[in-house]
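User: I'm writing a tutorial on reading structure tokens. Could you give me a worked example: one chain, its sequence, then its tokens, then a sentence or two explaining what the tokens reveal?
Assistant: Sure. Here is the example chain.
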Amino acid sequence: MISNSSKYAIKAVLYLAVHTNKNEKIMVKNIAVPINVPKAYIAKLLQKLSKQHIISSTRGPKGGFYLKKSNKEKSIMDIIEVIDGEKKFNSCMLSLKKCDHNKPCPLHKSINPLRTKLIENFKNKTIEEASNDVILGKCFLPL
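And here are its predicted structure tokens:
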């Protein structure tokens, strides 16, 4: 349901949320190793997120990526929508092109309620809430 690209983007954004602010920015090379994602790959994802104002960035010698308060108010779903688009969640679990509620695949009725709940949870979980859980030790993220 979630692509590897979205997983990498979520890890990177949470890493930024824990380690950055307007005065403390991080360059791509310093994000790639701790979250175990190739530098060029994460650079493309971060640029995409920056263009959509999910994260912030500045150029120059003291430049890099960071999160400000307004970025942290975005939801986990906002990240996924920028990277995957909404179609990823609505696609058939068996990858059947014509699967929908009028012509469901064998798994459609089992998956659809779970998909709806997952989307709701991702929309209701902010970057700040998720990063606070990491900071407080309620969950794990390689830092």
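What the tokens reveal: The chain has a mean pLDDT of 92. The chain is about 55% helix and 5% strand.
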